Automatic annotation (TrEMBL):
SMART domains: Tryp_SPc (SM00020). GO terms for biological process: acute inflammatory response to antigenic stimulus; biosynthetic process of antibacterial peptides active against Gram-negative bacteria; negative regulation of chemokine production; negative regulation of interleukin-8 production; negative regulation of transcription by RNA polymerase II; neutrophil-mediated killing of gram-negative bacterium; phagocytosis; positive regulation of interleukin-8 production. GO terms for molecular function: cytokine binding; heparin binding; protease binding; serine-type endopeptidase activity; transcription corepressor activity. The gene is ELANE. Residues 1-17 form the signal peptide. GO terms for cellular component: cell surface; extracellular space; Golgi apparatus; secretory granule; transcription repressor complex. InterPro entries: Peptidase_S1_Elastase_sf, Peptidase_S1_PA, Peptidase_S1_PA_chymotrypsin, Peptidase_S1A, Trypsin_dom, TRYPSIN_HIS, TRYPSIN_SER. Gene3D superfamilies: Trypsin-like serine proteases. This is Elastase, neutrophil expressed. Residues 20-238 form the Peptidase S1 domain. It comes from the Eukaryota.
Length: 256
């Protein structure tokens, strides 16, 4: 993650994020749509399989990154192991929808794979909402990711999950979905952005940003609202087209 983003978090502003603080290990392959985005063998962001040849993630995960060096890993649970359940692909094309990095709006990207996933018990496409059929305040959901367990703690090797409650009414920016993890210091954190927010079996959000530090227990965490982009998503995965991003540079200073 770039230095300016880290400073924003430490000073209480919004910071790109998405790791799990205060959660628990998920049951192996309980979430077969969960995806690990990797570069040079290391995990840097989460994503969601939405069709055999497409995954959905946060736009800031690939913004300024050489997408041709990104490896998409399906069917993973423990990132330390060479699991036989894994399927690995490269990225063929990148589709964005007006990402605004200054205001953290439209933080969504679709990556077209260079092949088609084999759907089985460990690799499945997620359910998505219909256009504008979002999630209401008070709804209980599940966030997940392979990110750090705290501001100064290393990431876990196995997928983590966390129960959260939708509190979008408390957010200044109603264009995103906001959540809190009840009366405790838990939530999303650095480096695993792009993972799903699952509500009643439907992916309603994409891990995007935090305020006030990881798992502050006070500031809500932010997710890009999938329901606002449902028609756009379907236009891509049902009839591939649109305009891919130009081949971006891959600055060495950018990490997640």
């Amino acid at each position: 993650m770039v230095t300016s983003v880290l400073l924003a978090l430490l000073l209480g502003g919004p910071a790109l994020a998405s790791e799990i603080v205060g959660g628990r290990p998920a049951r192996p392959h309980a979430w077969p749509f969960m995806v690990s985005l990797q570069q040079r063998g290391g995990h840097f962001c989460g994503a969601t399989l939405i069709a055999p040849s497409f995954v959905m993630s946060a736009a800031h995960c690939v913004n300024g990154r050489n997408f041709r060096s990104v490896q998409v890993v399906l069917g993973a649970h423990d990132l330390r192991l060479r699991e036989p359940t894994r399927q690995m692909f490269g990225v063929r094309r990148v589709f964005e929808n007006g990402f605004d990095p200054q205001n953290l709006r439209n933080d969504i990207v679709i990556l077209q794979l260079n092949g088609s996933a084999t759907i089985n018990a460990n690799v499945q496409a997620a359910r998505l909402p219909a256009q504008d059929r979002g999630v209401g305040n008070g709804t209980r959901c599940l966030a997940m990711g392979w990110g750090q367990l705290g501001n100064n703690r290393p990431p876990p090797s196995v997928l983590q999950e966390l129960n959260v409650t939708v509190v979008t009414a408390l957010c200044n920016n109603r264009r995103n979905v906001c959540t809190l993890a009840g009366r405790r210091r838990a939530g999303i954190c650095f480096g695993d952005s792009g993972g799903p927010l699952v509500c009643s079996g439907v992916v309603q959000g994409i891990d995007s940003f935090v305020r006030g530090g990881c798992g502050s227990g006070f500031y809500p965490d932010g997710f890009a609202p999938v329901a606002q982009f449902a028609d756009w998503i379907n236009s891509i995965i049902q009839r591939p087209g649109g305009h891919p991003l130009p081949h971006p540079r891959d600055p060495a200073s950018r990490t997640h």
